[in-house]
Amino acid sequence: MRPWPDRRDGERWVNFCRSFALAADYYERLNLRPLPLSALLASFNFRSNTTVSEFEKGNFRFFPRSLGQILQHAGTRELHLRFSLGRWDAESWGARPWNGAREGGTGVELWAWLEADTDEEADHKWLILTNALSGLFCASLNFIDGTRTTRPVMSFQPQGDHSTVTNMHLLYGVLPHEVVCTENLTPFLKLLPCKGKAGIASLLDGHKLFDASWQTMAIDVRPICSPGQECVLQIEQTIDMVLDIDRSKRPRDNPIPRSPPADQLPCDTSKPYHSHDACFPADHTANQDWSLSQIFGKPMRGTCPLTDSSIPPVCLHVPDSRDVFVSEGVHEKKNSDQVCRCYEIPPSADFEMALPKPDDSADPTTTAIVNPETPLLYAERSFTGHGQERGGVQTILRNPSPDTDVEFVYMETLPWFMRIYLHTLEARVAGGSRTNNSTTKLIQQVYYRPAVDRARGTQLEVRMRVPPASTVFLTYDFEKSILRYTEYPPDANRGFDVAAAVITVINPLQRSNTEEGEDGTAAGGSGSSGRVAAYTLRTTSLLCSLPTPDFSMPYNVIIFTSTAIALAFGGVFNILVRRFVAADEGPEAGLAIVLERVKGKLAGLVKKGVSM
Amino acid sequence: MDGAKVTPGRTAGLYAGAAVLRLAICTLLPQLPDLLTGRVEISTPVTSFKRLQEGLFLYNHNVSPYDGGVYHQAPLFLPLFSLLPDFSSLPIFTYLLYIAADLLSARALWRIVDSGEAGSSALFTSPRREKRWSGFTIAALFLFNPFTVATCLGRSTSVFTTCAILHAIAKAVSGAPFGAMVALSFASYLSMYPLLLLPPLVLLSYDRQRPERATKSALKFAATCVFVVAGVLAVLFQMSYLVTGSWEFLPSTYGVQLTLSDLTPNVGLWWYFFVEMFDSFRSFFLAVFWLHLASYVGGLTIRIRRQPLVVLTLLLGIFGIFKPYPSISDTSLFLALVPLYRHVFPLMRYTFVIAAVILYATFLGPAFYHLWIYAGSGNANFFYAITLVWGLGQSLLVCDLMFAVLRDEWEVERPEMVGKEIRQI
User: Fold this and answer.
1) Burial class for A140, CB neighbours closer than 10 Å (0-12, 13-18, 19+)
2) Residue-number span of the structural domain to which A590 is assigned
3) Where do transmembrane segments lie in this chain (chain B) (predicted)?
4) How far B341 CA sits from the closest chain A CA (Å)?
5) pLDDT in tens, A554-580
6) Of A68, B63, B99, B316, which is the most exposed, with the fewest CB atoms less than 10 Å away?
7) How far away is chain A from the Cα of B212, in angstroms, using its nearest Cα?
């Protein structure tokens, strides 16, 4: 367990594994990092730069024109788009890649800084942006309407340099129900200069990507200024995926999933009860042999000729003690930290890499993989209560650090039909007592914008602090509302997806600044990075089941209710307008009279007939 | 029935008994009030105590409670409840406030009974008026009615509306038209629908004016009353504006009742109808439902001109069925006034059916709601069906009471018809 300042040690070294200079026009990098439990994190990063003046003239070069024109048309200064699927298992995989900066909650997430003078203008531009991106990425981004759009106050900070622009509006929209799939990957790859034909992008394949345990595709566009140089507009495309090695290898040698024979089961022989008929499944760390073509289904096809050939495109994070076999002509560069090596690849040859089984003689946990870092914070969110009337949300936040506390902003964007009761918001340390005192001690600031029916979702941002080595429960109650029957989706009883909560851990160095009274408006004022969060994480999304009406009933309900009303109204009207008489008074009425009349008529007819 | 002399001791005993019962339930069963607060039969979106707490919390933290979809109640509740000690630490004060409101309602009801208006109004005296229950009995029936107790424990804010309406009637029968109009303005301010009670209440006040300062011209009297109501409402709205700082409370309180944007289930007929309604007809049927609700006022006021208190009672019964967000609190108010007509009970035709239907709906309603929401073994139609039965049972009671009252009037003209078969033409 390392507290976070150690992380910055890397800056002192000459390090191949770090991302490279901003100056390069195009850069791509694949980082492979085996994780515990036979998982492999593959992290693809593509970055193109164009100077702002060229961009404004319409010379896009490596910057994708389709996206660039949308950004220009919608007055977007900075854009972040995420397509995500699955769950990052922090307990076994440790800290998230990029410290969580390149990931989104399940579904699609979009946030952007738009240049606009008024809120209405910003809304209008946001509408243009979401509709255009919806077409570009084949995603339902056009469903990000007023009920799904929020304006975060504390959670997001611009990453680019916006010192010249003052009238920026941050808008944030999320579609938790969106299923990310191949049709989103194809336009994503089209934005790349090498289009997935060469270089690391040739490894990306929808079958593998969307079969991953966790995957996130990110697009970040931001202006970056370095002193003495012209500002550049940078687009960074990132794909992170955690592949299950066993699962990825399966189709090749065992297309039909079936259990292996008993004698081939990987058993943990150290267990005292291990015998020929009792097997405790071994930790998968031993099962770390794989090759690139096994995992991705094909080898990598050369390098993208647009990259700087001096920058190795593939890096592998395993201890130096492990053997790695690569194809001919590939040059391996080991990093000085002994846990990372990079490969320089000839431009037009296929690149293949294979990791054999690690040496069994040594302790497998220390040599086979690099131990993952401990994240700054663990978070889990779930529903409490039962029934379709009301419920509660409980988030368990755990600070693993033994000596430093963690300060973060917890942001929820909830749909309007979850009516939350803010007066029930409560934070308490696990094991502590339920008192108001604990809530006020842990929660430092709350920003709340209540939902308006059918117009706006709830926005809740809570700045809070978790003491060292402790677990905090954050809970609140909500009520589920019943909707008009046309407002339910076709699969109404499946429930409604609730977007992931976004947790932004505040950088402790900047924490002191904010406490001195600097408000969030000074974003991007100094330096190129603005106020960067130390760590970002998202909880899983939730599925909220609402009470449903009977969808087959509209006519019946209209008829029944109208009948009830007619009965009451008729009864009252009848009594009000009719006169009372004794039972034997007044004109005859009823069936007897009618019969009498009919008889008379008939008799008349018969008489006529006879006389004729 | 209750011929015994009502001593001050018995009166105090009744009120103390009612208060002790409520306090005992809150202290011995501390979970029960929260359970009742969550019941849809007691708390509607416009009266729920939990929503009031949320509004109060937002108000105290400088967030406008009307800029959200939760709080739809009158703005003046906010400063009122802010004055009370915090509910989570000292709930007793809130309970005491609600109990006091209930006792004040009972007191007003008692005064209505004592005035004898139910049996003999200015224009009509029932031959059966001797057969009546005392104020003590009727107040006791109100205070110990399970619906009233449940509403009080559930801390629904309709308790205050009930109190205001009963006070308006009590003021009117005791010859204080100004007080009646002020009380009615308060009731209308809190819940809007009591404004429809204005015509019969004006008539009642007109009939019961004190002879020494009576206004002869009915038109002038009505104009004054309307003016007073408008004035008091204007003052209340202005105060609300000062409290909340904007006019956005109007669409959020009264607008919600007019447009039914919150479709939370309740015992009324509106919610499921508008859940299932086709979007293009929504506004049309909203208008129809409101017109239907308002249409009773004119007809009843004109037809039963001689007994305005009857009109008020029947209207309250009708509102308890057909208003947008009814609850058992509205029924309890209606049931509080029904025993005033003890003298016409023998003329009612369906007492057994009515009692059976109301009991049936009372017991089956919560069960069916549970089946739908919690057990999942029933669907929304179960609860909807029971609200239909509940509505029909109550409308049967309204119709039957109206029939009995009109027959009572008719028998004054035709004394020989007492006990005979009659029919309507």
Assistant:
1) middle
2) 554-611
3) 12-29, 133-153, 186-206, 218-243, 269-297, 309-327, 347-369, 381-406
4) 18
5) 999 999 999 999 999 999 999 999 888
6) B63
7) 35
